[in-house]
Amino acid sequence: MFDRQPTLTSGAFSLRRLREDDRDALRIAAADPAIWAGHPETDRYEASVFYDLFDQLLAFKGALVMRDGDTVIGTSTYYTGSTQPGTIAIGYTFLTRPYWGGKTNLTMKSMMLAHAFESFDEVWLHIAPSNLRSQRATQKLGATYSHTENMQTSMGPCEMQFYVISRAAWRDRIGQ
């Protein structure tokens, strides 16, 4: 049985199960409008919109909070895509701006991919066509574009780009 809420660590970074007591710290992390500029729901920096997302993430039972030491810097989630039963996807990811452009996303996704590849042969990532930053970050991981289709999301039905990375491609990417 795949554990969707493991505790994962790499240096000072850690991922652990999202809990109700993370609500305010994650809200503060999400309060920067620039984080959501390429996202279909550009107002997620607003408290009421963010708290709706937070409640949905808690309900997923796959959300993880990303920390640098004791500081909450973002989140990511394991889930099954609405059009892909029996698969695993990683998404609903954001990081605070000081962690953009470096290796933080790679570190976070590396921990998550390594864990997922213990149980699955491939991992999917679903990205809105307008979210160019996430598309570039996903391609840096070694994921490849598969197709575009409508899927059910936390915002309702949305057109999403589907990217996939296999266990073999990931091993090639990290040099194992």
What are the key terms here?
single chain, 176 residues, alpha+beta, Aminopeptidase, 5-stranded antiparallel beta sheet, 5 helices, 8 strands, 29% helix
Description:
The chain is of the alpha+beta class and 176 residues long. It has one domain (8-174): 3-Layer(aba) Sandwich (Aminopeptidase). The protein has helices at residues 23-29, 47-60, 104-116, 132-140, 167-174, and strands spanning 8-10, 13-17, 63-68, 71-79, 89-95, 122-127, 144-153, 156-166. A five-stranded antiparallel sheet has the order 1-2-3-4-5, sandwiched between helices. Strands 6-8-7 form a three-stranded antiparallel sheet. Strand 1 and strand 2 form a beta hairpin. The chain is globular.
Give the CATH superfamily.
Gcn5-related N-acetyltransferase (GNAT)
Output the radius of gyration. Answer: 15 Å
Give me the count of strands.
8
Into which percentage range does the β-strand content fall? 25-35%
Secondary structure blueprint with pairings:
Elements: E1 8-10, E2 13-17, H1 23-29, H2 47-60, E3 63-68, E4 71-79, E5 89-95, H3 104-116, E6 122-127, H4 132-140, E7 144-153, E8 156-166, H5 167-174
Antiparallel strand pairs: 1-2, 2-3, 3-4, 4-5, 6-8, 7-8
